[in-house]
Amino acid sequence: MLETQPSLRTIELAKKFDVTDETIRRDLELLDSENKLIRTHGGALRIEKRVHDIPMLSRLKENRDQKREIARKALEYIKEGETILIDSGSTSLALAEILPNIKLTVITNGHDTITPLMEKDNITVVSTGGMLNRRSHSFVGAVANASLRRFPIDKMFFSCNGFDLERGASEAVELHAEFKESAFPLCTCKILLCDSSKFGVRSARFFADLSACDIVITDSSADPSFIEKLVAAGVVVK
């Protein structure tokens, strides 16, 4: 049933299979432990798999309110005088758009991330350079990865294509995953910007387990049960 719909309710399953709610809850807990679904309060969610990169222009149209909400929360973690890394994701772009014009150094591999910073003359903007990926409007590859080693980075704000409770953050494209992996050891604090549509999704290439994320910032429509599981695993969620 989860192959044809994204979520199920315990009460509906009990009625369909003519068993008690408790029987369904035990079955869902077993399937959750086998990582075949995500157990939630009152039912279950499908674990999705995304193996193709979504074009940047399409991503900009998705979940815009949630991305703005996440960006506003992320502002609380930015202090004047810091050097921050912002990746090329659409949620990261939402953060760049609302950055105040204060003394900051912003390093980015996002082509589009630079544009909203043009008029903010107190912000020093550093592009990683590298090979242009036209689909994601980002710079990737060896040059982009190596350029990060020149800077002391206080905080990294990064996105993902999917976020799984067992395996962590994933990307659809190998080069995107490699860029983030290259950045992790160079950053004092790693902050994942992840809208709730990414929860329970597994993409083609995992690049960060749960322990690699110092903070996960998501939106208010995130499933409470998923958040509870993250917190139980030791993840700080905002």
CATH class of the largest domain: Alpha Beta
Q: Compute the CA-based radius of gyration.
A: 19 Å
Category from helices, strands and their pairing: alpha/beta
Instruction: Please tally the helical runs, counting DSSP H or I stretches of 4 or more residues.
Output: 9
Per the CATH scheme, the topology name of the largest domain is Rossmann fold
Main β-sheet description: 6 strands, parallel
Topology as a string of helices (H) and strands (E): EHHEEEHHEHEHEEEHEEEHEEEEH
Would you write up a description of this structure?
- The protein has helices at residues 10-17, 21-33, 56-59, 64-75, 90-98, 111-114, 142-147, 174-183, 224-232; strands spanning 7-9, 38-40, 43-45, 48-50, 83-86, 104-108, 123-127, 131-133, 138-140, 153-158, 162-164, 168-171, 187-193, 201-203, 205-208, 215-217.
- A hairpin with a 3-residue loop joins strand 11 and strand 12.
- It is α/β, with parallel strands linked by helices and 238 residues long.
- It has 2 domains: 7-46, no CATH class; 50-232, Rossmann fold (3-Layer(aba) Sandwich).
- The strands form 5 sheets. The chain has a 6-stranded parallel beta sheet.
- It is elongated.
- Helix 4 packs across helix 5.
- The protein is built from 9 helices and 16 strands.
- The longest helix has 13 residues, at 21-33.
